[in-house]
Amino acid sequence: MVLPEKLEVHDFDEAAGNLLRLLLFLESYENQRAKSFFLGGWCGDGVGASAILRATAKLLKSERGDRDTREHFGKIIHVDCSLWKNRRAMQRAIAEELNLGHLMPMFDKQDEDDDFRGMDVRSRVEIPSIGSEINACLRNERYLMIFHYGGVEDIDLAECGIPNPEFGTYALGKLLWSGYGRFQLSQRNKKLKSSSAYFKTIELYPEVNAHLSQLLRRSLHEEAAEVIGYTDMDDVNPTIVLDCFLYSLFLTEQLHGKSISVDYGWDTHACNYWICDGILQGDRAFEVGNALQGVIQMLCYPSDRTKRLADYLDEHKEQYERWVSISSNQLGAQDISTIHVNTSSYFLTFGEDCQLQLPSDMFQLASTLRVLKLCKCSFDFASPPFRCCHNLKFLWLDHCTNTGEDQGGGPCFPNLLVLDIRFTDFVLLAEMIELMTNLREVNTKGVSWRTISHAWKKLRNLHKLRVTESSDVITVDTCSSIDMMNLELLDLSGNIHMESLPTMSSAGNLKMLVLDGCSSLEHVALEGALPLLESFSFDGYSPSEKWAHPIQLPKKEPRPKSSNALIQKAKVRRISLEGCARLHSIFLRAFPNLEELDLSSTAVKTLDLGAMDVARLKKLFLLGCEQLRSLCWDGRNPSLEVLHVDTRGKTRSMIYCGEQRSSIFEALMAFTDGRLVWSVIKGLYWAWYDSKVHLHISSTIHSQVNITKSIDEIVPSKEGLVPTRLFLPYNDIVLCKDIVTCSSLVWDHQHLYPLDVHIEIGEGSHHLESMNVNEDFKNFIENKVESLHVHDNISIYFQRHQDLGLV
């Protein structure tokens, strides 16, 4: 095992210069053998690594840096991918740093093509041709690539185009990198491919007379400044951002060595803690907090690294002693001391099956307490021990029990912003709610709906409402109308007895609706009632394990992985989200009884029927879906009977079904971008044999206009009109005999009629060449298509039937 190189520095400002001198020394000492250098931060714990990489890049690119050193390393490439997206985004960042602007349209086109293929954003890899250009730009150059890597998979930079140092002397570059992002203390092993002969680790240590605590604090301050750069909020003070991180550090470290863990709910409440504790203040507090929660990685578990960092910062610890977390399974009332007067956040968790009874006076001095969580505690609900905490802004009661006779009626907290009640029968009386006018977020889990349903009309300032896993039956009679003008998130997950949705027409600002695990719902029909709705989640398995703070769909990781978590099968037979024009994020899964799904006039971009587990789905409507890029379907799962798609805009196709002859499968699709066939063509090919498929790749639909043999030979159904076959799907197409004057267009009248499997390519269509190189589409043309109408498009490049596989 190769020991890491130690880099000693006196203060942060000289770290970058010392690091460059060490690289020069190692190059001369080892005869240029080492090529890849991993920066492990202070004492190898990761702190400061990202900030020092950035400072090094800045030094090399500035005039104050040593000119000889700059010329020695040659081209400086600084790439920050610590907020990981995918490998292609990494390659794009490299190309941008190399000023290869002419390659950007290639990235855009490939991403757009992958949208039509239905490829997940996280799975997108490098583009080989761009890799070749990057390689050509660097292979004969000296360069130093300074790289922040935030991914979790092992990657090979050679696939991006970076010359591999193991492939010969032409690779003159060096790599200085780290896998540690801002405020990241988790172990980060080597993730970039390189043999041990070319790889070295560098760790930073203070010189003899330097103070490590000061170096750490300065490094953390610099990392806080980096975090601000990712929020586009330059007016935020880095000291405030650092306090947000230290809040999680010191609360997490208080669990070190404890057998009982504390659920801080960072994913849900980190932003709420920062605001309610007073770290973030002002009119923009929630805006800033939301942005910071997206870029600060919270500490979930204590470790040796968190302990060392907290110990190093011990001399500053006094200002953080106001954050207190106590957990034990052996506490008694006599062990609970009165809360200190300066305490601002207090978490108390008891670990045994029995409850810890709280002294009635334990909070009598806590006049500055703002954040309070009590888990598995017992007290008098009518007169709780925290009744004197008038500045309380955050209250979380989890599995608490009442020692008194009354379930509610206790004091109210007019300054409360967030209320979280889980498996605790803490009754909210109407008169209490009326005084809590500042409430922005209310979360309940395992609480009786009847004890809280009366309250919601009073909360006009509420932005988030979660009423999950209610302990009683929810019906329309007990559901009060959702009448909150500012409500943005409504989560009704896990209410297995709820048979109908509450009326939500007055929740005009709602952006996200979650119905995961609501298995008794048979019909979900929003149909334009929520014009600002952007996200909708209905998971038939069960609710997500964690709530998230952003108003976005839950991530896949905390969702149930299989049907093993299923409590009861979802009954829903019909879902209609028609008319929710801003709805773009949809998660639907595990509906064994679903027969009809209507997503018409939404902004849905991708739909994967195979991943949805909807075996009985018969009808799918996607009319007016202008943003639709991919519809992944294999033709068998599910076995659709009706598929109607129109991506051309708000004008919806008029579909005539009254006198059509029966068919097992009917697909009517109208679109202009030929790439849409990539994802759906396999399903159309493998659909049942007795099917009717009409693909109209055109901005208008008139497959049989102006084409006839002889007007006199056709017996008109009405004077002046050309008859159409009974199964023609569009009843708004009228053919007038008077406009047919060109004798060259007089053909056999049988050619008028689209046959069962028909393709029209016409005006407004584009990316047609993409269809012709798709093997599934070629097979569809050769084996399925019965009629073809091509017209009104000067970009159509084929002239023979063979070009489309027709014979």
UniProtKB/TrEMBL annotation:
InterPro entries: LRR_dom_sf (IPR032675), Plant_NBS-LRR (IPR050905). It comes from the Eukaryota. PANTHER family: NB-ARC DOMAIN-CONTAINING PROTEIN-RELATED (PTHR33463), SWIM-TYPE DOMAIN-CONTAINING PROTEIN (PTHR33463:SF70). This is Uncharacterized protein.
